[in-house]
Amino acid sequence: MRTMDGRCCAVVVAFALLWGVCAATPVGAASELESRLRTLVEGHAGQVSVVVRHLENGESFSHHPDEPMPTASLIKVAVMIEAYRQADRGQLDLEKLVTLREEDKVPGSGILRDHFSPGLQLSVRDAIRLMIVWSDNTATNLVLDQIGLESVSTTMEELECPHTKIHAKVFRGDTSIFPERSKKYGLGSTTAGEMVSLLARLHKKEVASPAACEAMLDHLAHCADRTKLTKLLPSSAKAAHKSGEVSTVRTDAGILYTPGGPVAVCVLTADNRDRRWEENNAGNELCANIGKAVFDYFTPAAATVQPAAPPQELKVGASGRLVEDLQRTLNARLSPSPELSIDGEFGPVTEAAVQRFQEVSKHEVDGVVRQKTWEALGPLVTSDAPQPDPETVNNEPLKRRPAEDLDGPPIVTSKAWVIGDARTGEVLWGRNESDSRAMASTTKIMTAWLVVQLAEKDDSILDEEITFSEAADKTNGSSAELRAGERVSVRELLYGLMLPSGNDASVALAEHFGDRFEPAESEGGDASDSDPAARFVAQMNREAAKLELQETHYVNPHGLSVDGHRSSARDLFKLARTAMQSELFRQYVQTRQRGCTVIGPGGYRRNVVWKNTNELLGIEGYSGVKTGTTNAAGACLVSHGEREGDGLFVVVLGATSGDARYADTRNLYRWAWRQRQDAK
């Protein structure tokens, strides 16, 4: 609702919600569809409601399908439905001309406010088109003036969608007919289930006359937002959807026309931790990843679209994120700056800037960016705040706060914890310390430990280059922010694994090293025997058995929630103590920030900076080890601390928040050190 880019978000979310409601129960326990989507949902930092439903065979997935959620502009789907129903009854003439007045203009997404003058006349049908395709807020209010606010809610209740309501005109809070709901949900509210129900009925031509339903689907098929549900789909894929966004809300709902049939999808998010307005904010990315997962799942193997190889050069006609980076870099390198728009489209203006740079650099002037031009450009400028040189980052002195005092009891929120002696390995105190629980990214202790052991036997391993795969790039959750086709050494990628807790880095490492291990033991073997990532996970489990980690079993190398992926506070203490005896391992987990340069396809370079998620490293006396957070695991932390020569490990699992895990851990250390001092 805020910008034109968000104009279709609400509709897409609404569609997704409608489909999801009808699919409240996944087909088959722990089906492949559920496994794919559950990992995405649980990795998101915020409130999520999702419904997916195949509109022909009924296969479905749902997550909180009946939970009322804010819609942002997605509620405009309900407004459209009511308008066409009134037209079917002869109560509204879609060809009627309405006149735009200055007082009708409201902020946010759309084109009427900034590009057209008062006195413009347009049909109600055209206003609906603007409302859906461009999420035009002014056009939405013009439509509401014709149909009435109350009528939308009345019709939604008749359609058995009582939570689907538009509360007021857009940016006209004084018109609210549901003041309390306006305070709680903003412009509108719905559930994923109700939104999918509406979409399913729209698809079956039941929500209005067949001609009206066709017209509404056409509006939705032209939604201009490509930042959410449809972002990662093949360019040939078709969808009819609507999206929405406000500060902490990102939504998208619609029908994806997959090779395996039409699928309704609704994704609603709220209270998102990531409130950035950038296209790649976490809410948008969740919608995009769910859209891709659904499309891929319902695409038969024979119809799978193979991803194009990373471009070796850029020229007129190219588009995407790398073009944006090129445009920023040209603006920074050329003097005077060409002031290119950062739109990701390689057109004549960008070509002219490339030619100018090539002329200054004394290269062949053809406007095509190849390896020599990439090299001359230097590290790419990938944001408004360019990443500093790695040497600057690596040598930057970082202050520490004073050491803790020893007052205060061990008041903790964690569901399980343990305190262990770093020297002897003895478990000193604990609560539920042997309970097998979800462990989130503390998994990466084992991931790193396997690689470190290989490197200690042959340090040349650290200089091996890893090329990021599509699978690594698309891994959900916390990220090292590397892209498919980019190359980085194992030495540097271990920082990307352990500092920002890169799930993508864990997949890249597992793919790279998996073939050096034996496959999992099974009766007769299976396809996973040849999968390097599966072999890597099998080795993680063999190492767990070797270390006698009795409550531990690994299913993946990153820790995103999946059935059977578990450990205990006691086992994590034992593993961390073993790994911390390695100087190389300690080097990684003690590092607070790390910068490096990665090399991309065609030879471009860009700088990245990784910061350690472990906030204890900013306090004197702490030296590791690993954080972890998912909805299933809660907030987790495996840490090592030392005071006056007394080294301890503290593991907390299931803390109520990120802040709580640090408070829990520090209180446990203070209490333990006091107990040991008093015992002397």
Features:
Beta-lactamase; alpha+beta; Muramoyl-pentapeptide Carboxypeptidase, domain 1; globular; disordered N terminus; about 675 residues; 5-stranded antiparallel sheet; 3 domains
Structure overview:
By secondary structure, this protein is of the alpha+beta class. It folds into three domains: about 5-305, DD-peptidase/beta-lactamase superfamily (Beta-lactamase, 3-Layer(aba) Sandwich); about 320-375, Muramoyl-pentapeptide Carboxypeptidase, domain 1; about 415-680, Beta-lactamase, CATH 3.40.710.10. It is about 35% helix and about 15% strand. The protein has 23 helices and 19 strands. The strands form six sheets. The chain has a five-stranded antiparallel sheet, sandwiched between helices. A hairpin with a 5-residue loop joins strand 15 and strand 16. Mean pLDDT is about 90; it is low at about 1-30 and about 305-310.
Topology:
Blueprint: H1 9-22, H2 32-42, E1 47-54, E2 60-63, E3 69-70, H3 76-88, E4 97-99, H4 112-115, E5 121-123, H5 124-133, H6 137-147, H7 149-158, E6 165-166, H8 179-185, E7 188-190, H9 192-203, H10 210-221, E8 238-246, E9 249-258, E10 261-270, H11 282-297, H12 321-333, H13 348-360, H14 371-377, H15 390-394, E11 416-421, E12 427-431, H16 444-457, E13 465-467, H17 470-473, E14 487-489, H18 490-498, H19 503-513, H20 532-546, H21 569-579, H22 583-590, E15 593-599, E16 605-611, E17 622-630, E18 634-643, E19 646-655, H23 658-679
Helix pairs in contact: 1-9, 2-11, 3-6, 3-7, 5-6, 16-19, 18-19, 19-20
